[in-house]
Amino acid sequence: MAYDLDTLTDDCYESTTCLINKFGIRDSAQLAEMEAAITFAKSAELEHLPIKGSFNFEHYKAIHKHLFGDIYDWAGTIRTIDISKKGTVFVLAKDIEQIANSCFTRLKSEDFFRGYSFDTFCDAIVDFYYVTNMLHPFREGNGRTQRIFISQLIRYAGYDIDFSAIDPDELMIATIQSANGVRDNLFRLFQQNLSGGEDFTLSLT
């Protein structure tokens, strides 16, 4: 889904709204199809062989680079423009680094939500989902990166989730509502789709 930008052509081919990419594709619909195919395959890889990391911002960026590195030169790097979508204004580009560092430092200080009771864990993961959604640190591919990172985090904490089982429109609406201060539906979606699981085998480095 396209973002609302200060300048629609930022990072795009001249006279288009198609992002500059390694394939030289200049049609947005064609690029979206290519993106979907590549990131689907890359996501499947990460299900079997997750990227090791410390659940910090560098880990988050590494997932984005893995997903989009074959498509964009800037994969894994922070956006330099301000973006919004469907009335939600995301963190300003100049503030991303500072807010991200605060977010991931807090995550570490809470031991990645390990040992939390189910309801407490739901509250914590919904809050983290909300913050990383508002952060939206990349020019494109934020939702896909966020879901993979959070899936790994959830498993590391001893729970499990399958985002593919959640209706994407319902999740989008709940996400928009949370950006406007109403998290009830987002909490319900996580509560209904989280399950207990074995400790995730990803080791922190």
UniProtKB/TrEMBL annotation:
Keyword Protein transport attributed: no
Pfam family, one: Fic
Example of a GO biological process term: regulation of cell division
Keyword terms, alphabetized: ATP-binding, Nucleotide-binding, Nucleotidyltransferase, Transferase
MF (Gene Ontology): AMPylase activity; ATP binding
InterPro entries xref list: Fido (IPR003812), Fido-like_dom_sf (IPR036597)
All copies of domain Fido, residue ranges: 55-192
Catalytic activity: L-tyrosyl-[protein] + ATP = O-(5'-adenylyl)-L-tyrosyl-[protein] + diphosphate; L-threonyl-[protein] + ATP = 3-O-(5'-adenylyl)-L-threonyl-[protein] + diphosphate
SUPFAM superfamilies given in the database record: Fic-like (SSF140931)
Superkingdom classification of source: Bacteria
Entry keyword Amino-acid biosynthesis: no
Protein name: protein adenylyltransferase
Organism per entry: Acutalibacter muris
